[in-house]
Amino acid sequence: MGDRAERLGRTLADSGVRNGDEVIVPSFGTADVAEAVRLAGAVPVFADIEADSYCLDPSAVSAAVTPRTAAIVPAHQFGHRADLAGIGETARRHGLLIVEFEESESTAAETLVRQENAAYLTARLKGVVTPEVAPGAGHTYQQYVVRIPGNGRPDRDAFALVLRSKGIPCRVPVQTPVHRMPRFRRPDSLTQPAWLPETERASDECLALPVEAGLRKRDLHRLAGACNALGGLLQPAA
């Protein structure tokens, strides 16, 4: 567990979250958030994400509230801010605590470079689904995550394999949703949903491409060209 997750656990405990309380968290992303909830003695309850932002879906959060719910942790995913206004409505209605979580921090200069590199790729990539930014949300592009069209995980993994063979680094941002990790599986249907459709779909389709500071325009041009050469070959299943 990272330092930020440990601080999150202490913040939850200091804010009144107690043993046996439930805290609504995303399953798509790092396990640190769920681990922090456990550190506070509480039970993580997993809710689904929005397809575009990869952050908690306010409607899924509302549906996950029970009499035992004490807090919500809307993680800002890949640098895209969660819908705090929508989630806040549920929190106010039920008197719940909201504690935000960001996986990492960066300087303004680093963020600006990533945003410029992301804009370059978004304007040039074809055949993949580029990141969308909700109005007013903002995006720091701590990861530049695209969706690979086709038949889910097999096509995504094949796409990544070809890029790596060309010397282009890429990574699967979420290999396994947290609710499917053995240490978080529970028989309680409230805390172990049978199916989080957008979470499952994102874990099968998403691929993170490089946009970090230090990349040259020719690196980005080469990346876009390699992706575009593959994009048209992968078509959604009929």
Automatic annotation (TrEMBL):
Keyword Transferase, does the record have it? yes
Looking up SUPFAM superfamilies in the UniProt record yields: PLP-dependent transferases
- Which terms are listed as keywords in the entry? Aminotransferase, Pyridoxal phosphate, Transferase
What InterPro entries is this protein classified in? Answer: DegT/StrS_aminotransferase, PyrdxlP-dep_Trfase, PyrdxlP-dep_Trfase_major, PyrdxlP-dep_Trfase_small
Xref: Pfam families: DegT_DnrJ_EryC1
Q: Which cofactor does it need?
A: pyridoxal 5'-phosphate
Keyword Endoplasmic reticulum annotated: no
An example molecular function term from Gene Ontology annotations: transaminase activity
Of which family is this protein a member? Belongs to the DegT/DnrJ/EryC1 family. L-glutamine:2-deoxy-scyllo-inosose/scyllo-inosose aminotransferase subfamily.
The protein depicted here goes by the name DegT/DnrJ/EryC1/StrS aminotransferase
Q: Which organism is it from?
A: Streptomyces lycii
